[in-house]
Specification:
The protein is α/β, with parallel strands linked by helices. The protein folds into two domains: about 110 residues, ATPase, nucleotide binding domain (Nucleotidyltransferase, domain 5); about 170 residues, Nucleotidyltransferase, domain 5 (2-Layer Sandwich), CATH 3.30.420. Helix content is about 45%, strand content about 20%. The chain has twelve helices and 14 strands. It has a five-stranded mixed β-sheet with strand order 3-2-1-4-7. The protein is globular and about 60 Å long.
Length: about 325
C-alpha cells in the first residue's frame, strides 16, 4: 500500500510515560516532532489540548501542507466499537476515555485510534523490518508486552480490536514469576520492562543472600530499584546475575514466539523497544527456544529481528494515519 496524495499526516503516540506528536509524509518520513511527559494528575482532555496546540505549530512549521489524516497509537486494551480505552494498565487515568469522539470533535481531517502494538506492526510492514512479508508479528517488549499481527498481507485486529493481547497469557498455570497485567508468570510479567525490573530485584536479593557480588546488588542498594536499562547494560558488560535474568527473559520470549509460530506460521517476529536496544541479549536465546519447541518446518522460515524504524513511536502513529487515509479514500 502507498498513499501517493500530496499532503501530510499528523500523529499522536500515547504512551505510559509520554505523549509524542509528529507531522510526517505518506511514506513514513517524520518531518517534525515533539513530546510531553504524560502527567497522570491531568485528565486526558487537558493533555490532549496541549497536544492539539503543539501539532498545529508543528504543521505550520513544515510549510502548512494540507493534512490528510491523523492517527493515534494507543496503549491497549481498547474498545474499538466504542472508541474508548479499557483499563490500560500503564495509563489508568485514561480508562473509559472516548478518544475516537474527542479526535473527531477536535480535528477536521479523518482520524482514528489504534492499539500501539497493531500500529507498530503495520508500520514495520509498511516501512520497516517486516516489509516484503505476508505474515508477521510485532512484539512490543516495552512498558507493556503485546503483539501486533499482519496475517496474509493485512493487519488483523479482531472484531473488538483485541487480537494480539498476549500479555495476559500465563506461560504456566503454576508459575509464580513476575507480575504483569495483574497476574503472576504472564508474558507481560516476563517480557516487559517492569517485569524485568522485578526479576532483576529478586536476583539481586538472591545474590545478597548467597554472598555473590553483582552490579545488580549495588544498584538495588543505592537506587532502590533496577531499571531495564541498568539490567541490560550490566548483562551486556558480562555481569553473571544480570545475564541470568536476561537469559530467562529470552527463554520466555522464545516460548511465546513458539506458541505463536505454531498458530500463525509467521515469516518474521519484530522486537520493539528493549529488544531493539539490546538484540544480542534476547534474540539468540529466544530464537534457540523457538526452534527447540515449535514445529520444525515453521521455524525453518521464521526470522527474529529488531525494529528497523528509525523513529518507531512517531512512525507507528503515522502508520495509523496512513491506514485511516487509505480507508477514507
Amino acid at each position: 500500500m502507498n498513499a501517493s496524495a500530496p499532503g501530510v499526516y499528523l500523529g499522536l503516540d500515547i504512551g505510559g510515560t509520554k505523549i509524542g506528536m509528529c507531522v510526517g509524509t505518506p511514506d513514513g518520513r517524520v518531518l517534525a516532532s515533539d513530546r510531553f511527559p504524560n502527567d497522570p494528575a491531568l485528565k486526558p482532555e487537558a493533555m490532549l489540548a496541549r497536544c492539539t496546540t503543539r501539532l498545529a505549530e508543528l504543521a505550520a512549521g513544515v510549510g502548512g501542507a494540507s493534512v490528510l489524516a491523523l492517527g493515534a497509537a494507543c496503549p491497549g486494551p481498547l474498545d474499538y466499537r466504542a472508541g474508548k480505552f479499557i483499563n490500560p494498565p500503564n495509563n489508568p487515568s485514561w480508562h473509559g476515555f472516548a478518544l475516537r469522539d474527542w479526535l473527531a470533535a477536535n480535528f477536521a481531517c479523518p482520524s482514528a485510534m489504534m492499539n500501539d502494538a497493531n500500529a507498530a506492526a503495520y508500520a514495520e510492514w509498511l516501512w520497516g523490518a517486516a516489509r516484503g512479508t505476508r505474515t508477521a508479528v510485532f512484539l512490543t517488549v516495552s512498558t507493556g508486552m503485546g503483539a501486533g499481527l499482519i496475517i496474509d498481507g493485512r493487519l488483523y485486529e479482531g472484531p473488538l480490536g483485541l487480537a494480539g493481547e498476549i500479555g495476559r497469557i500465563q506461560l504456566s498455570p503454576s508459575d509464580d514469576g513476575p507480575v504483569g497485567f495483574g497476574r503472576r508468570g504472564t508474558v507481560e510479567g516476563y517480557c516487559s520492562g517492569p517485569g524485568m525490573s522485578q526479576m532483576a530485584a529478586a536476583e539481586a536479593t538472591a545474590c545478597t543472600h548467597r554472598g555473590e557480588e553483582s552490579v545488580l546488588r549495588e544498584v538495588l542498594k543505592k537506587e532502590g530499584a533496577i531499571t531495564p536499562e541498568r539490567l541490560c547494560e550490566a548483562a551486556r558488560a558480562g555481569d553473571p546475575a544480570a545475564k541470568r535474568v536476561t537469559d530467562r527473559v529470552a527463554r520466555e520470549l522464545g516460548r511465546i514466539m513458539a506458541i505463536m509460530t505454531d498458530i500463525l506460521n509467521p515469516e518474521v517476529f519484530v522486537l520493539g523497544t528493549i529488544g531493539t536496544a539490546y538484540p544480542e541479549l534476547f534474540i539468540p536465546g529466544a530464537t534457540g527456544t523457538l526452534r527447540a519447541i515449535a514445529l520444525e518446518p515453521a521455524t525453518a522460515i521464521v526470522d527474529v529481528r529488531p525494529s528497523a524504524l528509525a523513529d518507531r513511536g512517531n512512525q507507528q502513529a503515522l502508520a495509523v494515519a496512513h491506514y485511516t487515509f487509505a480507508a477514507n479514500r
